[in-house]
Each structure stands twice: as C-alpha cells, then as structure tokens.
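Entry for the shared binder. Reason: the reviewer on the internal report wants the predicted structure included alongside the sequence.
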Amino acid sequence: MVVSRNEDSRVFVGASLQSMGVDALLLASLAELTPILQANAVNGILLELTTLVTASQQDKQTVQEVLEFFPNAKFKFVENDLRVLSHTLEGFVAECQRFKARPIRKCARKERVLAVYLAADASFDHAEKVVTANISATGIFVYSPLEWKIGDRVWLRFPENDVMLSGEIRSFHAWGNNRFIPGVGIKLDEPAESNDAEPAKNAE
C-alpha cells in the first residue's frame, strides 16, 4: 500500500513497485487507511513523509495504530529521486514479501493505561515494568524504551489480577524517534477455547 497526497508521487512509486512485479494500492489520504485495510490484505505500507508530517493529530493517531501491525517505511523525493528512509525500495519489498498479507480486524481498540510486566519468556525473569497505551481483543501497544525485534515472542502479566497473555511483536518504535511513542505493538495469541473472556476484557 502506498499513501501520498501527491498524485505524481503515488503514481511514480506504484509504477516502480509494478516494475518489480509488486501490486500496490494507491491512497491519497491517511483517512482511507482503515476502511481499505479492513477490506484488503496487504504485506506492507509505504507512507510519504510529507503526507504524515502535515496530517491532523487524529490521522496521525490512526496511522500509528495501523503501522503497529505491518512492515512499513517512509519515503520522500529529493530532487526527483525516490528515497525510502532506513531502507532501499528493494529491501523494503523483500521484507514485505516475508510477511503474510492480511487485513486489519474490525475489533475496537481502546486507550487504556494498565500496569503490566513485559518479558521475553514465560518465567518473567528480568521482566520490564511497563504500561499499555491501547488494547483490543487481538492486540496491545506497550510503552517500552528497550530494544525489541519484530517477530520476537513476548509474555505479558497484569499484576492487578495476575492475568498472563502471550503474543508476537509486530511493530517496534525505538526510543528517541519523536514521531512515534517508543514501544512495541503486540499481536496477541488466540485465546484458548476454554477461555470465555477476550484478552482485553481479562486485562481490564
């Protein structure tokens, strides 16, 4: 998926991807992201930097939530030269091809600040004391200044009621990147059939 308010930019990036054998959905605004992603499975998102910088605060919040769950990169043009930040276009495409295409779920996400232990294994040795930023039935975003890797398995335990959840890191924002809150987006494992309450309700 390519998002840019500039039509020439969208068309150029789309054509560049097509020349590599990659199909792309071209969007003119950030407001289109959620409904399009609910209806289409994608492997990754390319977002024009200027479109993001000039967006409303509400649109920026929407983008932050979406980017937690997909490979993503920003791009800009410098003297008509396409620059993909922190990637090459070929490198980004390769990363996306390793990611199974999927849509976003339509479940509601709620802003919740909940104390939680975040750990790299179920023993919770060396667990980090963090808080959630938002939570849904299928995913959680957790503030964290530490270094994590996309694909890492993690465990969460809520001290208030001792509920434990597990999942996979789908996004990581490093501390010091002032465009995004530092932390990790976690795709929660499917609850066991015997568990009659969804993870978000358990955590609350």
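Summary line for the report: The two ends are 34 Å apart (CA to CA).
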